[in-house]
Amino acid sequence: MLLHIEGVLTPDQVARFRDRLAASDWVDGKVTAGEQSAMAKRNLQVPEDAPVARELGEIILGALGRNPQFVSAALPLRVFPPLFNRYDEGMAFDTHVDNAIRFAGPVRFRTDVSATLFLTDPDDYDGGELVVEDSFGEHAVKLPAGDLILYPASSLHRVAPITRGSRWASFFWAQSMVRSDEQRTLLFNLDSAIQDLSARLGQGEPEVVSLAGTYHNLLRMWSQV
Ligand code: NI
Asked: What is the pLDDT of residues 124-140, one digit of tens each?
C-alpha cells in the first residue's frame, strides 16, 4: 500500500526544520546504504548521531504517534529514528530495495514500512520524484512540504535525478506489528470503513461492534509483538 498522509508537519514546523538543517553538517549519504545501494546512491545526509537529527526526529515521532492514519496504516512496533537527506542538482538514488534489518544503537529491527517526509515544496525543484514500483507499475511521488508517503519497504524504488534546486526530506523505517503488506492493507481498509460506519451509525451499533471485533481478532491473529 502506498499512502499519502497530509500535514504531518505544519508550515511553521517545516520552516523551523529547514533553518536548523541549513546550519547542520552534511555528509555523503553512502554511510547508511547497504553494499548494493551504496553504488546507486548520490546524496547528502545529516550524520545519524547529530543532535539536530535526534531533536527534529523526536518532533516527527511525536507527530506520527498522534496521527491516526499513520498508526492505522503502519501498525508500528518500533520506528527507526528519522534521518535527513538532501539531493542537490545532479544527485539521485537509482533503483534499490532498502536493507531488511537495521540497527538503531544496540536495537536490531526489521524494516517493514518505509516513509519519506517531504521538506521542500515541489515548486522549488525539478526532478527528484520518489518512484515506487508495485504490481500495478511505477508511481511517481512528489508531495507538498510537511506531507509524508508511506510504502512497503520491500518495494523497488528510486529518487529521480534533480535537474533544478534541492530536495530536502526526512526518511525512516518502521517495524510493523504485522509483517505482511497485504495483511496491513486489509486491516487499514477495514479500520477505515469501521471509522466511517461508526461516525454514521454510532459506536454502539451491533454491526459496528461486530466489525470492530473482527478487526481486533484479525490483528490478534496476524500481529507479532
Ligand atoms: Ni531507499
From this structure: 999 999 999 999 999 99
